[in-house]
Amino acid sequence: MDEHMEQGPVHGVFVVGTNRERGAAFSIREAVFIDEQGVPREDEYDAHDNDPSVTHFIAYADGTAVGTARLRPIEHEGSPAGKVERVAVLKTARSDGWGTELMKAAEAVAIDAGHSQIVLHGQTHAAAFYERLGYETVSDVFVEDGIDHIKMQKPIEAET
Questions:
Q1: Phi/psi of residue 122, each to 5°?
Q2: What distances in angstroms separate CA 149 from CA 74, 99, 130, 142, 145, one per listed residue?
Q3: 10-residue block means of pLDDT along the chain (160 residues)?
């Protein structure tokens, strides 16, 4: 049994710590990216999914996995940065704030890791969401997996 479920109904965002949580995170990605958006399965999964330096997140609403994201360390403009990827929330939970909670969790981990900024490739339809969280568009539109994206970034620092 996964450690978060042992406590009873779970509500919040956690770092993936078990195979069960990992499977739940991947199921969410499949539902959102492969089933809803038509991303080819072979493009959805990559070597970063098994990289031990990558942090995967899972969001639970009352014990049900509803969202996921991953954060991987990169070098950006000569500084250590975090790249947020694979942010996905199930359609039934999209208006419940889980995207924001996943991003806050990723930012907190990135700060703890000493990163100075977060970078992401956001789908253009989600640009306003990321802008509300303080991200700035730094590229023209480009296509990934047949979907329009933009590169966005945000400086981050530990609160004093």
A1: -95, 145
A2: 19, 17, 12, 5, 10
A3: 51 93 96 94 92 96 95 90 96 94 96 94 95 96 93 83
- Identify whether the C-beta of residue 60 lies closer than 8 Å to the C-beta of residue 14: yes
H helix runs in 36-114, sequence order: 41-44, 98-112
For the chain, what is the radius of gyration of the CA atoms?
Answer: 15
Contact residues for 143 (Cβ-Cβ < 8 A; gap 6+): 149
Side-chain-side CA neighbours of residue 38 (13 Å) = 4
Indicate the CATH number of 5-155 among 3.40.190.10, 2.60.120.10, 2.60.120.600, 3.40.630.30: 3.40.630.30
Give pLDDT, residue 159: 65
- Give the pLDDT confidence score for residue 66 in this predicted structure: 97
Pairing of strands 79-89, 117-123: parallel
Per-domain boundaries in the chain: 5-155
